[in-house]
Amino acid sequence: xxxxxxxxxxxxxxxxxxxxxxxxxxxxxxxxxxxxxxxxxxxxxxxxxxxxxxxxxxxxxxxxxxxxxxxxxxxxxxxxxxxxxxxxxxxxxxxxxxxxxxxxxxxxxxxxxxxxxxxxxxxxxxxxxxxxxxxxxxxxxxxxxxxxxxxxxxxxxxxxxxxxxxxxxxxxxxxxxxxxxxxxxxxxxxxxxxxxxxxxxxxxxxxxxxxxxxxxxxxxxxxxxxxxxxxxxxxxxxxxxxxxxxxxxxxxxxxxxxxxxxxxxxxxxxxxxxxxxxxxxxxxxxxxxxxxxxxxxxxxxxxxxxxxxxxxxxxxxxxxxxxxxxxxxxxxx
Length: 333
Hints:
This protein is of the alpha/beta class and 333 residues long. The protein has helices at 27-35, 51-69, 116-129, 148-160, 176-190, 214-221, 259-262, 279-291, 315-331; strands at 5-6, 12-13, 75-82, 85-92, 97-105, 131-136, 169-174, 198-202, 268-273, 296-301.
C-alpha cells in the first residue's frame, strides 16, 4: 500500500484509502454510516444562485429531523419580539425552570437556517433542560454583513437582563451559530454589557471554519463541505459575503486569535467530532481558552460529523445533548 509523501513545503500528499466504520460508535451510528451509501451527502455550498430557494431547502432538510423529535421532546413554541428582534420562544411542556434562560443562535452559514435549524437546535434542549430557550432571528447575508448578527444577539441579551441576572443567561449555537456564540462572548464585555453566565460553541470555534486541517479531512470523508483548494486559495464562500470587508483577525469576528479577548469568556463548552470540518477550530479555540485561564470543556464525538448533537435519534447525539444540559445547569446555577 502506498504511503504518504512528505513534501519540502510541509504539505503531505495522502494516497487514496478506505476509512472503515469505527469500532467505537454505537450500532445505530454504524448503521447510519452504512446508509450513507444510498443517500446523497448534504451539500453546504449548493444552490448558490437563489437565496430564497436555498433557505427553503434548508428548512425542508431540518423538517425531517424535527419530525423525528416526535413526542419525545414536548414544548410549546411562540413567536415574540425581544429587544426589537424577532425570536421564537420554546417553553418545556412539563417543568419550566423560571430562574434561567438560554439564547439559541441557529446554524446555517450566516445565510440560512431560520427557522428550521432554530427549531432543530432548540426543541430538545428546552425539553431536556426545563429552561426557556429564546432562538434569535438574527440578520444574515447576503442582505447584511458582520456585525449585524452579533448586534441582534446583544439586543436580545440586553433586554433579557430585565428578567434575569447575566449569570443566569446562557448562549449556545451550532455551526454558524457556534461561531456567533463566540462572537457574542467577545462582543458583550467590549460593549459595556455583562458577560453571559456560560456559552456553548458547537460545530464551530472562534476562528474560521477553513483555518485548520480538519476542513481538508472532512471534505473527503463527509462530503457536506468542500475541502479548501490545495493551492491555498479561497474556496466558495458559503457565508455569501457575510464577512466581506472584515479583517481576517478582527477580534469581534474571530476572537479565538486574541487571548486578551478570550480571557473575558465565561465557562465554555465546545462540541465537535472527528469527522467534522470544525474539529480544528474547536480544538484550537479550546486550547486558547485554557491558555487564557477560562474553564473550557471539549467534547469530541468519535466518528461524528458536523453538529452531530442535532441527531438525537442516535445515542451519540443524545449523549451530547445530555452534556449540554448538564453544563448549563451547572454553570448557570
